Amino acid sequence: MGNSLYSTITRQSGLMKEMRLVANNIANMATTGFRSEKAIFSEHVVQLGLDGESLSMARAGAHVTDFAQGALTKTGGTFDLGIEGNGFFQIETPAGVRLTRAGAFSILPTGELVSPEGYPLLDAGGASLTVPVDVTDISISGDGTVSADGNPIGQIALVVPSDENDLEREDGVMFKTASDVLPAEGASMSQGFLEASNVEAVTQVARMIEVQRSYEMGQSFLEKEDERLRSILTLVGGR
């Protein structure tokens, strides 16, 4: 197989990975707290022989998450919380503590605050947060302090990882980290608001079209090369 074919195949593979990321971004445009992703292409150089000849190929070996803030939308929900600034909620999952920006919480009959998946929301001390079920007024201040009928009963944790590059996406809007978490300085939460996805629809659709066209060009080249090689084999075999 020619070097040009190797280069094209690796490029096609990278474009397929990027297309999946873009498609996932578009599918989550309406997902609360979703963070978009993009592929990172790098050059991969392979030595072909002792004479110094090499082959350069493009690879999409990694992807990066865009942590830019999404717009806050007013819902009026008592337990809808939108974060302003750099910070995450902590929730307890069967796999351990996870971070999220999706603040659409609800209350169980027991008074425990949980995520849409049913995972407990954690307070500043790392314990699940429980609200008395017989109160009539629940307010949540910007620093996460929860008050029931005017009496403080706990504080929702708002944290950041000590190393943001250590964040690893799980299940759409949740992230895990092996690094320590610290209080989120300068961040606050707004009761009755939810943070929208930070996916920019026009940008993502434009990128999808661009990736599709690039992939089609590569596919056309591969098909022409295949026809050329078949023609050569046919001529050689006919002698």
Tags for this entry?
three-stranded antiparallel β-sheet; alpha+beta; 239 residues
Q: What can you see in these coordinates?
A:
With 239 residues, the protein is an alpha+beta fold. The protein contains two helices and 17 strands. The chain has helices spanning 3-27, 201-237, and strands spanning 37-47, 54-65, 72-74, 81-84, 89-93, 96-100, 106-107, 113-114, 138-140, 145-148, 151-155, 159-161, 168-170, 174-176, 181-183, 188-191, 193-195. The strands form seven sheets. The chain has a four-stranded antiparallel beta sheet, with no helix packed on it. The protein has a three-stranded antiparallel beta sheet with strand order 9-10-11, with no helix packed on it. A hairpin with a 2-residue loop joins strand 10 (145-148) and strand 11. Helix 1 (3-27) runs antiparallel to helix 2. The protein starts with a helix and ends with a helix. The mean pLDDT is 86.
What's the structural blueprint in terms of helices and strands?
Layout: H1 3-27, E1 37-47, E2 54-65, E3 72-74, E4 81-84, E5 89-93, E6 96-100, E7 106-107, E8 113-114, E9 138-140, E10 145-148, E11 151-155, E12 159-161, E13 168-170, E14 174-176, E15 181-183, E16 188-191, E17 193-195, H2 201-237
Antiparallel strand pairs: 1-2, 3-17, 4-16, 5-6, 6-14, 7-8, 9-10, 10-11, 12-15, 13-14
